[in-house]
Prior knowledge:
By secondary structure, the chain is mostly helical. It folds into two domains: 1-154 and 230-263, no CATH class; 276-494, no CATH class. Helices cover 75% and strands 1% of the residues. The chain has a two-stranded antiparallel sheet with strand order 1-2. Helix 12 packs antiparallel against helix 13 (299-319), helix 16 (379-393) packs parallel to helix 19 and helix 17 runs antiparallel to helix 18 (417-443). The longest helix is centred in the middle third of the chain and has 32 residues, at 155-186. The N and C termini lie close together (11 Å).
Amino acid sequence: MHNLFDFALATPEIVLLVLTGAVLLIDAFGNEPTRRMTFMLTMGTILIVIFVSWGQWGEDTQGRTFSSLYVTDSLAHFMKILSAIAVGVTLIYGRAYAEHRDMVARGGEMYSLALLTLLGEFIMISAGNMLTVYLGVELMSFALYALIAVRRDHLVATEAAMKYYVLGCLASGILLYGMSMIYGATGELGLAEIAEVIRQGDAQRLPLAFGVVFIVSGLAFKLTAAPFHMWTPDVYQGSPTTVTLLVAAAPKFAAFVITLRLLIEALHGIAFDWQPMLLIMAVLSLAIGNVVAIAQTNFKRMLAYSTIGQMGFVFLGLLSGVYEDQPGAVAAAYGSALFYVVIYVLTTLSTFGMILVLSRQGFEAEEISDLKGLNRRNPLLAGVLLLSMFSLAGIPPLSGFYAKLVVLQALISAGHVAVAVFAVLCSLIGCFYYLRVVKMAYFDEPEDHITVGAGTPVTRSVMSVNGLLVIGLGILPGGLMALCVHVIQQSLSF
Length: 494
């Protein structure tokens, strides 16, 4: 169980690292402007990693290795597969966009950096030690900094990269400082060891409390929760849309898992210290995200504030799991938060994928007004947009409605009835700007009559499946919800 060097447990990361190096090396000898070979190799790498993780999950591979720096459990397998799928779908949606904007003409670094972000996410997901958490966070973050600035001659993207870099380094420093205080208070870096020291009452109370404050602040930055959200609208708007989706989708899985591992596995013994912080950030995120989004005219910026509001619900699910001797209720609460993150990423892929598909050479489909009359120009895209907006708004029977419902049920079960009412009111406010987008797509006259395609057959197929899942997981959510609760139970008991 605690083998010092059981490399088999880290097979997905090893395979991903080796294949990423191979992709980077092969691309260095290529000169094709579209980098088709690099793209195909990247997609092949992602598929191989998915199959490796799936195989380990199917064989019930679990354990700790590298002196408990690395953890493999059902939660890790599940989230790695979802992260890889999210990155793969992003690259499928964004390939044409990147080619038209010369993001790959001078080299296929975009694809290699995307794989490195995925590697960082994998390390975060399997972190069993605060050092591993920080290593994964920095690997993912530095790859994203470079990706945002991949259009070197684009001033807006360069500005977004600088903002993200400066604020990201600040957030990483805050997270690292919190970890150092936790180490000072407990004398341990391993998450399981920290939990045991706290359980036995041997931790120094004051530095432990301060460390929790810094750690929660750093995690809130990664999850784009208020009041640590200020980077989000500028980075989402300024980044090339392909990169925006790489920032908005898969990293949320990794950030959610390290939040679980740090707060629930390591620091659950002092949950009543961090629970009020999550409550405050959830309320602020719901209020700021949904209210400020109303004033936005840029679609990407609107979706950034929408993300802030959506993360408020994730925090509500996390803070609802603080019980005494009620393991079933704990797993249900954290499972509802995990379900919400999965549905959020699924819907985010379709909304930003819509922007990528609608954009063409010399034209960025970033303004909400660019969606006017979309139903007349492409009913398929308009239908997927409608499903995505209704899901984000929480309108039944779409998956977003069920995701909000299970979080609210957990919140009410934990006794936070007033907060649940506030969350519902904020969701009603959010309906305004989501329905405004649908109104423009279906009822406004188009500003031009240019025929809108839906990309390649592969892109159309992926977009269709994406839209069907948004409605399908709302009509039949039981399987995914049960799976989320199951992996949470196994992780908590591991």
